[in-house]
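pasting input
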Amino acid sequence: MADYNQATYDAVAEIIAEVSSIDRTTIAPDSHAINDLGIDSLDFLDVTFAIDKKFGIKMPVEKWMEDVNEGRAKAEEFFVMRNLVRHIDALVAQKAAA
Amino acid sequence: MRFERFQLIDRVERLDRPRKAIVCRCDVPHESSIFDGHFPGHPLLPGTLMIEAIAQSCGMLVLVLHEFRRMPVLIGVDNARVRGMVKPGAVLAAEARLVQEGAGYVAATGHVTHAGKKVAEAEIRLGTLPFPSEFLRGEARKFAREIGLV
Protein backbone atom coordinates (compact mmCIF):
# COMPACT_ATOMS: atom_id res chain seq x y z
CA MET A 1 0.00 0.00 0.00
CA ALA A 2 1.33 3.48 -0.89
CA ASP A 3 2.42 5.75 1.96
CA TYR A 4 0.67 8.69 0.32
CA ASN A 5 -2.83 9.56 -0.89
CA GLN A 6 -3.17 8.26 -4.44
CA ALA A 7 -5.82 10.79 -5.44
CA THR A 8 -3.62 13.65 -4.28
CA TYR A 9 -0.62 12.13 -6.03
CA ASP A 10 -2.52 11.79 -9.31
CA ALA A 11 -3.73 15.39 -9.13
CA VAL A 12 -0.27 16.74 -8.33
CA ALA A 13 1.38 14.68 -11.06
CA GLU A 14 -1.19 15.94 -13.54
CA ILE A 15 -0.52 19.54 -12.53
CA ILE A 16 3.23 19.12 -12.84
CA ALA A 17 2.90 17.43 -16.21
CA GLU A 18 0.69 20.19 -17.59
CA VAL A 19 2.41 23.21 -16.07
CA SER A 20 5.92 22.07 -16.86
CA SER A 21 5.14 20.33 -20.19
CA ILE A 22 6.47 17.01 -18.90
CA ASP A 23 5.36 13.59 -20.10
CA ARG A 24 3.07 12.32 -17.36
CA THR A 25 4.46 8.81 -17.68
CA THR A 26 7.89 10.02 -16.59
CA ILE A 27 6.59 11.16 -13.20
CA ALA A 28 6.95 8.51 -10.48
CA PRO A 29 6.47 8.52 -6.70
CA ASP A 30 10.24 8.65 -6.22
CA SER A 31 10.81 11.37 -8.82
CA HIS A 32 12.59 14.47 -7.49
CA ALA A 33 10.78 17.50 -8.90
CA ILE A 34 13.97 19.44 -9.55
CA ASN A 35 16.72 16.85 -10.03
CA ASP A 36 14.73 14.24 -11.97
CA LEU A 37 11.91 16.18 -13.61
CA GLY A 38 14.03 19.24 -14.39
CA ILE A 39 11.58 21.78 -12.98
CA ASP A 40 13.36 25.09 -12.52
CA SER A 41 12.55 27.74 -9.93
CA LEU A 42 10.19 29.74 -12.13
CA ASP A 43 8.37 26.60 -13.25
CA PHE A 44 8.04 25.60 -9.62
CA LEU A 45 6.34 28.92 -8.85
CA ASP A 46 3.75 28.02 -11.49
CA VAL A 47 3.44 24.53 -10.00
CA THR A 48 3.01 26.03 -6.53
CA PHE A 49 0.32 28.39 -7.79
CA ALA A 50 -1.59 25.56 -9.45
CA ILE A 51 -1.35 23.23 -6.43
CA ASP A 52 -2.31 26.02 -4.00
CA LYS A 53 -5.34 26.82 -6.16
CA LYS A 54 -6.40 23.19 -6.63
CA PHE A 55 -6.21 22.26 -2.95
CA GLY A 56 -7.01 25.64 -1.36
CA ILE A 57 -3.74 25.73 0.55
CA LYS A 58 -0.55 27.78 0.69
CA MET A 59 2.50 25.57 0.37
CA PRO A 60 5.28 27.21 2.41
CA VAL A 61 7.84 26.58 -0.32
CA GLU A 62 10.08 29.46 0.71
CA LYS A 63 10.20 28.10 4.26
CA TRP A 64 11.03 24.65 2.87
CA MET A 65 13.88 26.10 0.80
CA GLU A 66 15.15 27.96 3.85
CA ASP A 67 15.14 24.73 5.87
CA VAL A 68 17.08 22.98 3.10
CA ASN A 69 19.58 25.83 2.64
CA GLU A 70 20.22 26.04 6.37
CA GLY A 71 20.70 22.30 6.72
CA ARG A 72 17.59 21.63 8.80
CA ALA A 73 16.13 19.34 6.16
CA LYS A 74 17.11 17.58 2.97
CA ALA A 75 15.61 18.68 -0.34
CA GLU A 76 14.19 15.16 -0.82
CA GLU A 77 11.94 15.73 2.18
CA PHE A 78 9.92 18.28 0.23
CA PHE A 79 10.58 17.75 -3.46
CA VAL A 80 10.38 13.98 -3.98
CA MET A 81 6.86 13.36 -5.25
CA ARG A 82 5.69 10.97 -2.51
CA ASN A 83 6.91 13.39 0.18
CA LEU A 84 5.50 16.46 -1.56
CA VAL A 85 2.13 14.73 -1.70
CA ARG A 86 2.26 13.91 2.02
CA HIS A 87 2.99 17.56 2.81
CA ILE A 88 0.08 18.67 0.64
CA ASP A 89 -2.25 16.24 2.39
CA ALA A 90 -1.07 17.54 5.76
CA LEU A 91 -1.77 21.14 4.68
CA VAL A 92 -5.23 20.17 3.46
CA ALA A 93 -5.95 18.42 6.77
CA GLN A 94 -4.71 21.46 8.74
CA LYS A 95 -6.98 23.72 6.76
CA ALA A 96 -9.96 21.43 7.32
CA ALA A 97 -9.27 21.32 11.06
CA ALA A 98 -8.99 25.11 11.36
CA MET B 1 3.49 56.52 -20.27
CA ARG B 2 7.23 56.84 -20.80
CA PHE B 3 8.03 54.17 -23.33
CA GLU B 4 11.79 54.77 -23.25
CA ARG B 5 11.80 53.76 -19.56
CA PHE B 6 9.13 51.09 -20.10
CA GLN B 7 7.08 52.96 -17.54
CA LEU B 8 3.42 52.76 -18.47
CA ILE B 9 1.79 54.10 -15.30
CA ASP B 10 1.57 57.86 -14.77
CA ARG B 11 -0.51 58.10 -11.62
CA VAL B 12 -2.23 55.94 -9.02
CA GLU B 13 -5.86 57.02 -8.92
CA ARG B 14 -7.13 54.67 -6.25
CA LEU B 15 -5.64 52.14 -3.86
CA ASP B 16 -8.02 49.82 -2.03
CA ARG B 17 -5.98 47.95 0.55
CA PRO B 18 -8.83 45.82 2.01
CA ARG B 19 -9.83 44.64 -1.49
CA LYS B 20 -6.18 44.47 -2.61
CA ALA B 21 -7.03 46.47 -5.70
CA ILE B 22 -5.55 49.42 -7.56
CA VAL B 23 -6.54 51.78 -10.36
CA CYS B 24 -3.82 53.57 -12.30
CA ARG B 25 -3.95 56.27 -14.92
CA CYS B 26 -1.92 55.72 -18.10
CA ASP B 27 -1.58 58.61 -20.56
CA VAL B 28 -0.74 57.34 -24.04
CA PRO B 29 1.83 59.71 -25.63
CA HIS B 30 0.78 61.70 -28.66
CA GLU B 31 4.03 60.86 -30.40
CA SER B 32 6.49 57.99 -30.16
CA SER B 33 8.79 56.09 -32.46
CA ILE B 34 6.71 53.04 -31.49
CA PHE B 35 3.86 54.50 -33.51
CA ASP B 36 6.07 54.89 -36.57
CA GLY B 37 5.98 51.16 -37.03
CA HIS B 38 2.73 50.30 -35.25
CA PHE B 39 1.42 51.15 -37.69
CA PRO B 40 2.68 53.52 -40.44
CA GLY B 41 -0.01 56.15 -40.99
CA HIS B 42 -2.31 54.41 -38.51
CA PRO B 43 -0.75 54.70 -35.06
CA LEU B 44 -2.14 52.36 -32.41
CA LEU B 45 -0.99 51.47 -28.91
CA PRO B 46 0.29 47.85 -29.10
CA GLY B 47 -2.02 45.43 -27.31
CA THR B 48 1.00 43.92 -25.57
CA LEU B 49 1.58 47.27 -23.87
CA MET B 50 -1.98 47.28 -22.57
CA ILE B 51 -1.27 43.87 -21.00
CA GLU B 52 2.01 45.26 -19.64
CA ALA B 53 0.10 48.19 -18.10
CA ILE B 54 -2.04 45.67 -16.22
CA ALA B 55 1.10 43.84 -15.09
CA GLN B 56 2.72 47.09 -13.94
CA SER B 57 -0.41 48.04 -12.00
CA CYS B 58 -0.23 44.63 -10.29
CA GLY B 59 3.42 45.28 -9.58
CA MET B 60 2.67 48.60 -7.91
CA LEU B 61 -0.01 46.91 -5.84
CA VAL B 62 2.40 44.21 -4.69
CA LEU B 63 5.07 46.79 -3.82
CA VAL B 64 2.79 48.76 -1.56
CA LEU B 65 1.02 45.79 0.04
CA HIS B 66 4.38 44.17 0.79
CA GLU B 67 5.74 47.52 2.02
CA PHE B 68 8.56 47.45 -0.52
CA ARG B 69 10.07 44.31 1.02
CA ARG B 70 9.55 42.25 -2.14
CA MET B 71 10.25 42.97 -5.81
CA PRO B 72 7.55 41.82 -8.22
CA VAL B 73 8.51 40.25 -11.56
CA LEU B 74 6.21 39.02 -14.29
CA ILE B 75 6.08 35.22 -14.50
CA GLY B 76 2.82 34.50 -16.27
CA VAL B 77 -0.02 35.90 -18.33
CA ASP B 78 -3.18 33.91 -18.92
CA ASN B 79 -6.37 34.58 -20.82
CA ALA B 80 -5.07 37.85 -22.26
CA ARG B 81 -7.53 39.58 -24.53
CA VAL B 82 -7.19 42.82 -26.44
CA ARG B 83 -10.68 44.06 -27.09
CA GLY B 84 -10.24 47.58 -28.45
CA MET B 85 -7.93 49.84 -30.41
CA VAL B 86 -6.26 52.72 -28.61
CA LYS B 87 -4.90 55.78 -30.39
CA PRO B 88 -2.13 58.17 -29.32
CA GLY B 89 -3.27 60.71 -26.74
CA ALA B 90 -5.79 58.38 -25.10
CA VAL B 91 -6.14 58.36 -21.32
CA LEU B 92 -6.45 54.83 -19.97
CA ALA B 93 -7.33 53.32 -16.61
CA ALA B 94 -5.43 50.15 -15.71
CA GLU B 95 -6.98 48.20 -12.85
CA ALA B 96 -5.73 45.15 -10.99
CA ARG B 97 -6.90 43.07 -8.06
CA LEU B 98 -5.04 40.28 -6.25
CA VAL B 99 -6.95 37.01 -6.23
CA GLN B 100 -4.38 34.57 -4.83
CA GLU B 101 -1.17 34.87 -2.85
CA GLY B 102 1.33 32.19 -1.98
CA ALA B 103 5.00 31.59 -1.25
CA GLY B 104 6.88 33.72 -3.73
CA TYR B 105 3.99 34.60 -6.06
CA VAL B 106 0.75 36.52 -6.43
CA ALA B 107 -2.01 36.06 -8.97
CA ALA B 108 -4.24 38.91 -10.11
CA THR B 109 -6.91 39.82 -12.59
CA GLY B 110 -6.88 43.13 -14.36
CA HIS B 111 -8.15 45.17 -17.23
CA VAL B 112 -7.62 48.43 -19.08
CA THR B 113 -10.46 50.75 -19.94
CA HIS B 114 -10.68 53.76 -22.23
CA ALA B 115 -13.57 56.16 -21.77
CA GLY B 116 -15.25 53.52 -19.63
CA LYS B 117 -14.96 50.78 -22.25
CA LYS B 118 -12.81 47.70 -21.62
CA VAL B 119 -9.97 47.49 -24.17
CA ALA B 120 -7.81 44.75 -22.62
CA GLU B 121 -7.90 42.17 -19.86
CA ALA B 122 -5.63 39.48 -18.49
CA GLU B 123 -4.81 37.24 -15.58
CA ILE B 124 -1.36 38.07 -14.30
CA ARG B 125 1.07 36.11 -12.15
CA LEU B 126 3.99 37.85 -10.51
CA GLY B 127 6.88 36.25 -8.70
CA THR B 128 7.97 38.13 -5.60
CA LEU B 129 11.68 38.17 -4.83
CA PRO B 130 13.91 39.92 -2.33
CA PHE B 131 15.22 43.15 -3.82
CA PRO B 132 18.67 42.51 -5.29
CA SER B 133 19.95 45.85 -3.97
CA GLU B 134 18.98 48.69 -1.68
CA PHE B 135 19.49 51.01 -4.63
CA LEU B 136 16.70 49.29 -6.55
CA ARG B 137 14.41 49.29 -3.54
CA GLY B 138 15.10 53.03 -3.20
CA GLU B 139 14.29 53.62 -6.86
CA ALA B 140 11.03 51.70 -6.46
CA ARG B 141 10.04 53.87 -3.48
CA LYS B 142 11.01 57.01 -5.39
CA PHE B 143 8.85 56.03 -8.36
CA ALA B 144 6.00 55.14 -6.03
CA ARG B 145 6.13 58.63 -4.54
CA GLU B 146 6.22 60.21 -8.02
CA ILE B 147 3.03 58.46 -9.08
CA GLY B 148 1.21 59.04 -5.81
CA LEU B 149 1.25 55.44 -4.63
CA VAL B 150 2.74 56.44 -1.27
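fyi Chain A touches chain B through 13 residues (CB under 8 Å).
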